[in-house]
Write a structure and sequence with these properties.
The chain is built from six helices and five strands. It has 151 residues and is α+β, with helices and mostly antiparallel strands.
Length: 151
């Protein structure tokens, strides 16, 4: 089962329209991929801030809209993660990607350190764009395949 994810720069005021069709690059710049989901972003924030995973860290990712127990969900990335992404230098992206690839969230993933470095570059560019446009960096996440309840 794959988790489809779409990262986009938008206003959470557009949540209903985004939920209906998140892939409108002319309106909301971004990129789509598989399995770079909320769990992995929480691990990234914990890694960058040298924190352990806990409810406060997880709850810093605000669910802006959800279609129900099985998704899809629209999630606002925390300002502190966006700040980290905006300021992550290329050399730091490589070492961060290597460390991130070693987290438990990637234990059974096809994502490698090189892929994650590219993802960090794209996320950094989107975080900068969101900051300049006074918008938000959002994650649209949905499950493909068998439905799974999120507890």
């Amino acid at each position: 089962m794959d988790i489809r994810t779409c990262y986009l720069v938008a206003s959470s005021d557009d949540a209903d329209e985004i939920m209906a069709n998140p892939r409108q690059p002319e309106r909301w710049p971004g990129f789509a991929c598989l399995n770079l989901d909320l769990e992995k972003l929480v691990d990234l924030l914990a890694l960058c801030e040298k924190l352990s995973l806990d409810e406060a860290l997880i709850s810093s990712f605000e669910v802006v809209n959800n279609a129900g127990e099985y998704g899809p969900w629209l999630i606002r990335l925390p300002t502190r993660l966006c700040t980290i992404l905006r300021h992550l230098e290329e050399a730091d992206q490589q070492s961060t990607a290597e460390q991130w690839a070693q987290t438990e969230a990637f234990a059974h993933s096809t994502w490698g350190a090189g892929d994650l470095q590219k993802a960090l570059q794209h996320l950094g560019a989107l975080a900068r764009l969101a900051s300049e446009a006074e918008l938000e960096l959002l994650l649209h996440q949905g499950v493909e395949g068998e439905a799974v309840a999120i507890q």
